[in-house]
Write a structure and sequence with these properties.
- By secondary structure, this protein is of the alpha/beta class.
- Helices cover about 20% and strands about 25% of the residues.
- The protein is globular, with a radius of gyration of 17 Å.
- The structure holds fe (ii) ion.
- Fe (ii) ion (FE2) binds next to loops.
Length: about 270
């Protein structure tokens, strides 16, 4: 199977860039399944049901989240019923929504998607390692599901790498989100799991991690909050991770970054 993961849609720039690119990417990369992290799609803070639907219409099968999942209260109207929208699995039990689901892909294939969130420099949720482990006790890659994609939303590269190795051999792809900067370490781990520490955001890279530059710089200089953060609205760059899996084992045969847009060195896999 061919899977694409797109990193955090950041504000209007990010969602417009991704919505515009997705139909072409689905065709060009012959994609079977697409997951998009949209937790910053609504002006940087959460996503709305309307935006989630637009991204799904454009070609996403699943929308994942993170620490901003619940910023827009509107999402509460759909998150319990619409299983295409995920929040991190390691939120405590009474939290609305779900952290994983199994989805139908073309040719009778089943794809398990898990969204989890790190705890280093983040809100201390339940242990993400044990939470993902519990899900993977129910589903086995290459046996009950054909692909397993894990979006690990975290700040620390160490925690994300540890998760990659912890799941090596049990997932098709473990990809990090949240830092908004793509890392250059896309690789297949020894056990066959594709891994990239961060997919990078879809958004305007003439910014401070997607936000207009003035306020973040001012906060670093003065330690004062003068204004709200607002997303940078220049042309967006699309960033993500492309994986091709072995149909028999579900493990990765190939992993490559995807970068399309005006500011980063472009890279689009040849299919
Ligand atoms: Fe985040």
């Amino acid at each position: 199977m061919r899977l694409l993961f797109l990193g955090d849609l950041m504000g209007r720039s990010g969602r417009n860039a991704a919505i515009e690119a997705l139909p072409g990417l689905r065709e060009k990369l012959k994609l079977d399944f697409v997951v998009v992290n949209a937790e910053n799609a609504a002006s940087g803070f959460g996503t709305t049901s309307k935006i989630a639907n637009q991204v799904i219409q454009a070609g996403a099968d699943v929308i994942s989240g993170g620490n901003h999942t619940f910023d827009q209260k509107d999402i509460l109207s759909v998150i319990d019923n619409d299983q295409r929208i995920l929040r991190p699995v390691n939120y405590p039990d009474p939290t609305p929504g779900r952290g994983y689901a199994v989805y139908d892909a073309p040719r009778g294939k089943k794809v398990l998607v898990i969204n989890a969130m790190g705890r280093v420099f983040m809100n201390p949720l339940e242990c993400p390692f044990r939470a993902v482990d519990a899900v993977l006790k129910k589903y086995r890659l290459g046996v009950t599901v054909h692909a397993v994609l894990v979006d690990f939303h975290g700040e620390a590269t160490s925690e994300k790498m540890a998760m990659g190795h912890y799941l090596d051999g049990r997932a098709s792809l473990v990809v990090g989100t949240h830092s908004h900067i793509p890392t250059a370490d896309a690789q297949i781990l020894p056990g066959g799991t594709a891994y990239q520490t961060d997919a990078g955001m879809c958004g305007d890279y003439n910014s401070v991690i997607g936000m207009d530059k003035a306020e973040p710089i001012s906060r670093f200089l003065t330690k004062m909050n003068r204004e709200r953060y607002t997303p940078a609205n220049g042309e967006g760059t699309v960033c993500g991770t492309f994986v091709e899996t072995d149909d028999r084992t579900g493990l990765a045969k190939r992993v490559e970054p995807v970068r399309m847009g005006p500011r980063l060195m472009e890279h689009l896999p040849e299919v």
